[in-house]
Amino acid sequence: MSAVVAAPAPVVFKAACPDCRARFELDAAAIRLAIGASSRTTFYSFTCPECDTAVRKPAGERIVELLTGGGVRTLRLHQTV
Ligand SMILES: [Zn+2]
């Protein structure tokens, strides 16, 4: 009997649109995370599925962790090596 490896449940992120106030869930592919040199330049963005507005929100440490852990594509604007 072969074991069936269950695929991890798809991660969804709850988001809200500041423009039309719609609330919705986005999967990792719908979100982009940009990490800048400071928290002021670190943000995530997505397109509202309701009104098509490009939404950009600041991402704190916890959000960054959540998003990267959920497989969101990350763009590093600043290399801190
Ligand atoms: Zn909207």
Topology record:
Blueprint: E1 12-16, E2 23-27, E3 31-35, E4 43-47, E5 54-58, H1 61-69, E6 73-76
Parallel strand pairs: 3-6
Antiparallel strand pairs: 1-2, 3-4, 4-5
This protein binds zinc ion.
Residues 17, 19-20, 22, 48, 50-51, 53 line the site of zinc ion (ZN).
How would you explain this protein's 3D organization?
The protein is mainly beta and about 80 residues long. It has one domain (about 10-75). Helix content is about 10%, strand content about 35%. The chain contains 1 helix and 6 strands; from the N terminus they run βββββαβ. The strands form 2 sheets. The chain has a 4-stranded mixed sheet, covered by helices on one side. It has a two-stranded antiparallel sheet with strand order 1-2. The protein is flat, with a radius of gyration of 15 Å. The mean pLDDT is about 90. Zinc ion binds near residues 17, 20, 22 and 50.
Structure at a glance:
The protein is mostly beta strands and 81 residues long.
What is the number of strand segments?
A: 6
Rounded radius of gyration (Å): 15 Å
> Kindly state the mean pLDDT as a whole number?
90
Enumerate the strands of the largest sheet in spatial order, edge to edge or round the barrel: 5-4-3-6
Bound molecules: zinc ion
- Give the helix proportion (percent range): 10-25%
Strand content: 35-45%
Q: Give the domain tally.
A: 1
**SSE topology string:** EEEEEHE
The profile of the biggest β sheet is: 4 strands, mixed
Q: Helix count?
A: 1
Structural class: mainly beta
Principal-axes shape call: flat
Q: What is the CA-CA span between the terminal residues? A: 49 Å
